[in-house]
TrEMBL record:
Signal peptide: none annotated. PANTHER family: ER-BOUND OXYGENASE MPAB_MPAB'_RUBBER OXYGENASE CATALYTIC DOMAIN-CONTAINING PROTEIN, PTHR36124. It holds the Pfam family MPAB_Lcp_cat. One of its GO terms (molecular function) is oxidoreductase activity. Residues 150-301 form the ER-bound oxygenase mpaB/mpaB'/Rubber oxygenase catalytic domain. This is ER-bound oxygenase mpaB/mpaB'/Rubber oxygenase catalytic domain-containing protein. It comes from the Eukaryota. It comes from Fusarium oxysporum f. sp. cepae. InterPro entries: MPAB, MPAB/Lcp_cat_dom.
Amino acid sequence: MDAAKPSLKASASESLQSELLTSFAPTSWSGPIILGALLGYVALCSLLRFSRINSLRSKLGFHDRASLSRMTNQDAFQVVQNIARFEFPLFYDLAVRLALFETYAVQNVAHVLYGGSDLANRKKAPKRYADTEAVYVCFANFPPTSPVLHKAVARTNFLHAPYIKSGKIKQEDLLYVLYASFAEPVRFLNIYEYRKLTDMEVASLSTLWKYVADMMDIDYRTVLGKNEWTDGLEFFEDMTRFGGDYEDKYLRPTPEIQKLGHVLMEMLLDSYPKIASPLGYPAACVLMGPRLRRAFGFPEPGLAITVLTYSLLLVRKLIVRYLCLPRLAPSIYLSDPDEQTGRIKSYHYMKEPFYVPPTFWQRWNPEAIITWLSGGLLPGDGGPSMKSEGFLFEDLGPDKVVGKGVEETKGFEAIVKTKAFAGCPYKSSEN
C-alpha cells in the first residue's frame, strides 16, 4: 500500500502537467486569431493615425490648391500647432534645431554671431541657445494676435536693430533665416516622418513664418522683387528658389563658421550619455547633409554609420505608421505667462535646464534622467542663473543686453501690433 502511494502521486502529477501543457499549447485556430488581432490593431492605428489631419482639413476646408488662397494667419497657426504638438513633435523640434544650425553656417550670419553673440563661447552658448529656442517656440506656440508673440518678435527686433542699422545684417540674411525656419522642417519631416506633409501643412508653415517676418518688417520686394503671393505654396516656392541661390553664394566654410559648428555639436552631444558619442556624432553628420557638413568642417560619415542611421529611421517610420496610436495629449514646450509675474516656463532643455521649473515630473521624467546620467543638470540644479522661475523677454539675449532694452522693446512691440492680424495675407482673398 505504502509503495503504491508514490506511484499514484507521480501519475497524478504527470496528468496535471499534461493538462496544463494541453491548455497552453497552440491550437489550429490560435494562429489565425493572433494574426487577426494584429491586423486589426494595425488597421486601428492606421485609421486613427490619419483621423486628426483629415478632420482638420475638413474643418478648415482646404481640399485643393485653390482653397489655400483663402488661408488666414490664424488657420496657419492652428495647422502648425497640430504639427508641432500632436503629429510630429519630436522631429519638428529636431528639424527646427537643424534649421538653426543652417543659419549659423552662412557667412554673414556667422560673422555677426561670432563677434556679437555668446554662441561662440562654450560656457555661454547653452544659455544663448536656450534663449533662441524659447523665441522660436513662441513663434509657433502663440497665435498671431497674442501679446506674447508680439513681445517675442519685439525682443527679436530689438536684438537685431543695431546690426541692421550698421549694415552687418542685410535683408537677404533675415529672409534666409526665415526660409530655413520653415523649409528645413518641410524637408526633414517629408524624408523621415511616417508620412509626407500635405499641401495644407506646407502652406501653413510658410504662412506662419511669413506673418512673423511681416512683424519683423522684412522687405521682400528688395530681395524677391515682389511682396504679394497667391497662397502659401507660391510663397514657399519663391522662397525655396531664393534659399538655394543664397546657399550657393554664402554657405561656405570659414574659420568662424567652423568654430560655431563645433561649439554647437559639443552642446548637442553633451546632452546625451558619452557612451553614445561614437555613434551620435557621425549620425548627426548624416542628418545634416553634405553641404552643411562641409560648411562646418565635419567629416564625411562612413558607409556603415550612414546605412545604420537610415535603417533605424526607416524602422522608426514603419513602427510609428503601423504600430503606434496617435498622441492623445499635446507636447508642451512652454507655459503661458504667469498671471502675476508674467514669467514663462520652459519644459524642454538640452543639458542646462534654463527656465525649467523644478517640479517632481520635470526632475524625474525619463528625458531628465537620461540627461542627468549623461552629465547634465536636473531642473532646480545649477543655481539662480538657471532662472527656474521662468523668463521675461528682457532676460533673453547675450549677457551684455540681459535686463536691458525694456523701453526700446516696448516701442518695437507697438510697431509689431500694427502689423499683426489673424486674417488672410494673400492677394486673391477678400479682406
